[in-house]
Amino acid sequence: MLRGSRDTCSTIRSPVTELTRQYVEENARVKFDQAEYQLRYASFEARYEKAKGRLEKIEEQRQARRIKREQLETFLTTLLRQDSALTEFDEDLWIAVIDKVTV
């Protein structure tokens, strides 16, 4: 899901970047009303920033999921190393299970 969202944001961001570049180049060649140019440029910039913000949020979510996956893999590896049922406190397993402790 996040990969698809990231691809969609990138797909939106690339054309907006290209449109902005073309518009700036056209402004250098053709005389535009600068107030109109600024409004149109601002709309390109707003679209780009929106896509960039969404992309950053998706990347943060992906990173959080990567970290969670690594933690779960560590826990599973620790759990599978156990030869038998637990009969006493196991510090390694405790550390692998606990995310945070409030005292």
Structural class: mainly alpha
Main beta sheet: strand number and arrangement? none
Shape: rod-shaped
Number of strands: 0
| CA gyration radius, whole angstroms | 25 Å
Folded structure, characterized:
This protein has 103 residues and is an all-alpha fold. The chain contains three helices and no strands. It has helices spanning 2-29, 34-80, 91-97. Helix 2 (34-80) packs antiparallel against helix 3 (91-97). The two termini are 37 Å apart. The mean pLDDT is 80.
Descriptive tags:
rod-shaped; mainly alpha; 103 residues; 3 helices
Report a brief summary of the structure.
This protein has 103 residues and is an all-alpha fold. It contains 3 helices and no strands.
Secondary-structure blueprint of this entry?
Layout: H1 2-29, H2 34-80, H3 91-97
Helix pairs in contact: 1-2, 2-3
